[in-house]
Amino acid sequence: MHYPNTAEVTVVGNEESVQNIVLPPIVGTSETITYDDGTAEALNYMYSAGNGWAVKMSLADGKNRAVLTGGYYKFDGGDRPDPGGTEFLVEVYDSTGPNGLPGEKIAGPLEAEAIRSETDWTFIDLSGEEIIVEGDFYLAYIQKDEYPYTPAINRDTSSESSGRNYSYIDGEWKQTSTSDGNYMIRAEVAYDEAVPEITSPLNNSYTAENTITVEGQANPNKEIYLYKNGSEVAVVSSSEDGDFSAEISLTEGSNTITAKAAQGESLTRPSNQVEVILDSAPPIVSINSPQDGEEFNKTSVTVQGKWRKKI
């Protein structure tokens, strides 16, 4: 796996032009996330286009971000439906919906072609789509055409339901019945270990200070580029242990901070995104009780008042 890259190419009429483009490699490991046992005992299809199913995927323990590089789908090789079809759509969602349901669509719809086979899986190469997934995410099959001009997706009903299967019908996501088994959708992800991670401050932090120390982890002895609201603001080097830190000036309001690490002649993907809100205006405070000049014959008193943000 490699990072994409771009280059300007000058083309002269009636001449051959050659331009070498360096693609920095993605340094890390990959895995296929699987919740079925590989055997298909049942199938399913929708009568209306635009509906479908998804499987909720979780990254490996200790992994927070990955690149979704592909999807595996198992389609039935029989004659149901008849005549059937091969076109379908791939979509990817995060898990920010109510109670962890599919939320924001982060990729798709992507056109795809099904292999209808009793044995073969359909692999959809997503490596060129730059799909970054964090934590839990959903890989979906969306039916492109009306019944009966559609493939049938297989289900594994011989193993216990993973509880990770969801249907999408008329614009609404719902968890499927356990009797449906496991829809045979798998995700291939790559964990890019070269991408730095910001560990401090926490996302959605508030501060009244004009500067903040950003800390994180990366590969050892790498140049780390820090960005605020998309602009480079600092360059530091990670230590022998991979630690890095940088002092960054903040602007009033929202500050979105990310980091990239040097990777060959290029840079890695951005790190996790951290938002820090600078609110340096003091609030306006009014004391309602006690009244000015009021006297007491006790050692403690309750103070009541109101405050509001200065505009």
Strand-helix topology:
Layout: E1 28-33, E2 42-44, E3 52-58, E4 65-73, E5 87-94, E6 105-113, E7 122-125, E8 131-134, E9 136-143, E10 153-156, E11 165-169, E12 172-175, E13 182-183, E14 185-192, E15 197-200, E16 205-207, E17 211-217, E18 223-228, E19 231-237, E20 243-249, E21 253-263, E22 266-267, E23 274-278, E24 284-289, E25 304-308
Parallel strand pairs: 16-23
Antiparallel strand pairs: 1-14, 2-10, 3-9, 3-11, 4-7, 4-8, 4-14, 5-6, 5-9, 10-13, 11-12, 15-17, 17-20, 18-19, 18-21, 21-22, 21-23, 24-25
What does this structure look like?
The model has no long low-confidence stretch (mean pLDDT 90). The chain is extended. The protein has no helices and 25 strands. It has 311 residues and is an all-beta fold. It has a six-stranded antiparallel beta sheet, with no helix packed on it. Strands 16, 18, 19, 21, 22 and 23 form a six-stranded mixed beta sheet that branches.
What amount of the residues lies in strands?
Answer: over 45%
CATH topology of the largest domain: Jelly Rolls
Low-confidence stretches: none
Report the structural category: mainly beta
The H/E string reads EEEEEEEEEEEEEEEEEEEEEEEEE
Helical segment count: 0
Q: What would you report as the Rg, rounded to the nearest angstrom?
A: 27 Å
Helix content: under 10%
Number of domains: 2
Order of strands across the widest beta sheet? 6-5-9-3-11-12
CATH class of the largest domain: Mainly Beta
CATH architecture of the largest domain: Sandwich
Mean pLDDT across all amino acids: 90
Largest sheet: 6 strands, antiparallel
Distance between the termini: 50 Å
Oligomer: single chain
Number of strands: 25
Rough shape? extended
